[in-house]
Amino acid sequence: MLMVHPEAAYTLSFDIDPTQPTPELQLFRTYEVNGREGYVNFTKVRTLMPTVVGNRYVYSFTCHENKMSIWATTLGVDGKYYEGKVENVRLNGVGTNSTHFSINLIVVGAMEKTKDGLSIEEFSSYLLSAFREKYYGVTIDTLYVRYANTHPTLGYKYPAEIPWVAGESSEDMFVSELAGWPEDNLRNALNIIMVHSISKNEIMGFAHLFSGVLGSGDESSVVIGEHVRKTGGGLELLSAYTIAMTAIHESGHFFGLRHTSTTRRDLSHEMESGLMVLSGDLSNMEDGLTDTPFCIDVFRSTLYKTAGVGDAVYRSSIGCLAKSGIETCPDVNNIMFPITVSDTIDVIFTEQQMEIIRSSLMIFPH
User: Of the residues 119, 147, 273, 349, which has the maximum number of CB atoms within 10 A of its CB?
Assistant: First the structure.
């Protein structure tokens, strides 16, 4: 299954299996069956033969859809499914959209000053400055602050005096209906929804992995909390730095970055019985970049079973890290390290991470 965007050009490639004939790639458009939730039909888009580059098959195509779409793929030989090995798969995309974007900071419900005394307006200036510093390869034009209770049609649902808890105050943890604020200059932007807290313990923010929606609709928002719920009970008010770095980390997921080091949740999903099982997506074991070190101690540790990519990211205190030795990980100063370490560590994106963000931004319509 491939997520594709309007007018973006893609290459899908994988290693050649010399024991098998060259396969053709079939691309199918997917669409939901009316009245049958969860059922999907397919229509063929095209059939492609590859070019050979080194020891890899490379298939090239352009998406001419009018919105983000999910395409399905099959590999075939003479009307039968390809029987060879398909290893080291890579999808690259190139778009023509701007490398500029703006941010909507949408504040939901009751708020107080941050742990270090910043009001929402002061924090918004701090957040914009932090984004501009860390997202050094692209341009953030401006940051707009909007309060959910002032929304022209939905404001009545979000009273300013009540703390909003993502995952508890409504069924939609992402508060998606607030994304794409109905003003022309706010519709196509990165939507950061700031809430009082998140219902899960030790979670400070979450985002969909490779969302691709700079505007309104599903998967169009990054959610951050002003407080974090502690495992032992109670709430902890966070500093402006911690909230801002959480927003930048989660936005990294939004633009397609995985964790630099794998957590147990990255390789699994929860069943209804509560058991953790392998998802089968072993691409989560590695972010695919050569300039981001990997720390196996994060995966070995039992402290981070609830961490996830594209779901909710566990953000631990330095106290937990000291118990596990995680603070010595070589990627501890990377923004996409899965655990918050300390306000004193200067975190960064590497050049390859920044190139993914830049490429994604050029693919995402905005």
Answer: 349
What is the DSSP code string of 218-232?
Answer: TT-EEEEESEEE-TT
Quick count: other Cβ atoms within 10 Å of Cβ 162? 13
Do residues 316 and 342 touch, judged by C-beta distance below 8 A? no
Question: CB-hemisphere CA count at 13 Å for 79?
Answer: 0
Pairing of β 56-62 and β 2-4? unpaired
Question: Residue 311: what pLDDT?
Answer: 40
pLDDT at 262 over 90: no
Residue with tokens 């002003």: 226
Which pLDDT value is given to residue 360? 94
Q: Give the list of residues 6+ apart from residue 124 with CB closer than 8 angstroms, or none.
A: 105, 143, 145
Q: How far apart are the first and last CA of the chain?
A: 24
Distance between CA 202 and CA 229 in Å, rounded? 6
Q: Using CA atoms, how far apart are residues 44 and 207, in angstroms rounded to an integer?
A: 31
The model's confidence at residue 306, banded by pLDDT at 50, 70 and 90, is very low
Residue type, 233: G
The count of other CB atoms within 10 Å of the CB of residue 278 is 9
Q: How many other CB atoms sit within 10 Å of the CB of residue 6?
A: 17
Structure tokens at 76: 């075939």
